[in-house]
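Subject: Protein record for review, amino acid sequence with backbone structure tokens
How to read it: Take the token row as a discrete description of the fold.
Enclosed: The protein record, placed directly beneath this head.
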Amino acid sequence: EMKKHFQLKSDLDISEQSAWTHLQTGDWLFGRGSVDMKSGVAINIALMRAFAKPDENDHRLIDELDGNILLLACPDEETESVGVLSAVPDLLKLREKENLEYIGVINTDYIAPRDENENIRFIYSGTVGKLLPSFYILGVRTHVGEIFRGIDASQIAAELVREINLNPAWIDSWTGSLGNEGLTEIAVPPVALQMRDLKPSYNAETAGEAFVYVNWLTLQMNPLDAMKMMRDSAKQALGQVVRRVEESYQEFNKLGGQLQKPPTWNQIVISYDELLQKASKEMGDENLNQLLKDKVNEYSSKVKDSRELSCLLVAELAKAAKLSRPAIVTFFSPPYYPSVIPQENELTQALASVIGEFEDEIQYRGFFPYISDLSYLRLDHADASESLKKFMPLFDVAKEDKKKVYLLDSDKLKEIQALNCPVINIGPFGRDAHGLYERVYMPYSFETVPQIICQTIKQVFSK
């Protein structure tokens, strides 16, 4: 069917040309989830079977190892990683019960070309982190016929996205060494995941409120320094909109327009912890805590998305604090993925001793470039907890039934720090993950990758 699809198309774009070329080779398996993540799971299952299956002499490959292998399959990796976060305490209990030492974790998340060269395969000894900078925006509503009397929250949101999206100043980098070789890694710049006004229906007023959140992949950036950059960008965006309104009014006035001059606005940019303090002064700590508990319980049953819940809580606090307009509140929404810094360990040393046996062009790199569950198996940013308490509305917040709203809390970060597993990613190779032509390259993924992992495990546990 896919061949017919391509043959019937008279004009193929670049993505389609690549997919059609790959399809004709017979070396690529197409299908949604084929590379992300079904192939990685299949590789692990096949390896477990190979290590455990007895031969004709009732001999098992696992019996040759001075150690053991544990398979951990986790759902929900691309939303808030509930699977691995739920598994962390069980891993700690198992370690204590069986008196184990965790040598490390081999993840099989997919890899893809990093540039135009499609022949290089990558193995990683760390993973990028992720922050979700969030902005609750308060504009000043006005009738569309008296536009200069207000500040449109949608315009502030648009300017904020323009300021942050793909901004090179927000690019995070890391310089270190792997295998005695110097290495510099660069993360991609941030991009907005959502920008919307909060008007419930049509009317002839400008938007009074808006909400923006941004995907930011990090290598070394910590939440505290990130918040400083968020505040700076918010101030820049809000100031630019106010200037634009004034400049537009001046041109309008020159042309003979007869409207009132724009007011002089007191522009406010405030972080979540500052908003909490302001609300506390207005209503007292006890009343504020009760308000937050009530609103968490009320909204948790109405919304399923923790980004929306965060926004609703910040909006309630802005009311309680009697925050004047125009204003921007800066905070973090879930999820938070701490980066794992690349390092030499027993896994990387074992890998280095076997990787030369394979003909593929394999390159050893630092940070896996997409988010992964590896972020929750080792903690290299122990100071993150305090910053998240200050700037993330849902951090350490529980519902009426005592269940945490966001599974990653202070206790969970301590558990991750206690687990402290070295990590490495050896995954299948493919293209167009999440896309119409998602596909996995079978020769490397189903032949070479299992062999690399098998030889690495055997080297680590050689008797």
In short: The CA atoms of residues 17 and 25 lie 13 Å apart.
